[in-house]
Amino acid sequence: MTEAVTFTGVIDSIREHTAHLLGTTISYDEDDWAEPTALAGWTRSHIAAHLVEEALNMIEVLRHDDASAHALPSAEDRQRALERRALDAGIELQIELDETSGQLQDVLAVVGDDELAVTLSGGWEIQGREVPLVRLREVVVHHFDLIGEAALDVDDDMAQALLALEVRRPRSEELPPVLLVADEGFSARIGDEDGETTTVLGPANDLLIWLARGITTSNVSGTADLEADISHPS
């Protein structure tokens, strides 16, 4: 965390943005849950199921004294669990999302400044105290998958923290050299070290979505030649 983004601030932001997401999903009827999202191949049910499963996985990791030694489900097991839960009725998904989010919130609130190494899905190694920021990223990005740019209402400091986190996220493919420059002041070089550097500019919220989803909003410039090179992790 930085001075501008405190642990307590992240916890509060998770609560706020989870409430916004639940406010979106509570309006869905059973047919609405089967609608597609911005994440290719995922319905709204898949989004909710993923957030539930990831909350349960985070709880299990954080409740172990040696989180680094706790074995996460394999990618195949995670996919099977996702597909099974996505078959639940919409009202069940809403309840599960609400309950697991609350349970995770309670666990995250006592993590504090834990520097214990934690390995998340995809081999992403972080410190225990960074797990709340990962959860906030999950909620914000997946809310974007559901409703688009209206979900990008994260305040400037938190948005920069999320973008800095996304820069460190393991990627399935290497990008060409890119200089990210956020309107709020954050900047970072990502991708291959060789070749001509492309500068991508925009608000931190929008750069987060570009890097996480390969989606260029109207506020982002410089990505025209890079769209095919962005991978789209969940």
Task: Give an account of the 3D structure.
This protein has seven helices and five strands, in the order H-H-H-H-E-E-H-H-E-E-E-H. The chain is mainly alpha-helical and 234 residues long. It has two domains: 145 residues, dinb family like domain (Four Helix Bundle (Hemerythrin (Met), subunit A), Up-down Bundle); 61 residues, no CATH class. The strands form two sheets. It has a three-stranded mixed β-sheet with strand order 4-3-5. A two-stranded antiparallel sheet has the order 1-2. Strand 3 and strand 4 form a beta hairpin. Helix 1 runs parallel beside helix 5, helix 2 crosses helix 3 and helix 2 runs antiparallel to helix 5. The chain is globular. The two termini are 23 Å apart. The mean pLDDT is 89.
The value of Rg in angstroms is 17 Å
The CATH architecture of the largest domain can be named as Up-down Bundle
The low-confidence runs, each spanning 5 or more residues with pLDDT under 50, are none
What average pLDDT do the residues reach?
A: 89
How does the helix and strand content classify structurally?
Answer: mainly alpha
Strand content is 5-15%
State the fourth-level CATH superfamily of the largest domain: dinb family like domain
Assign the CATH class of the largest domain. Answer: Mainly Alpha
Largest sheet: 3 strands, mixed
Query: Termini, distance in Å?
Result: 23 Å
Shape: globular
Query: Percent helix among the residues?
Result: 40-55%
* Element-level helix/strand string: HHHHEEHHEEEH
Instruction: Compute the number of helices.
Output: 7
Q: How many domains in all?
A: 2
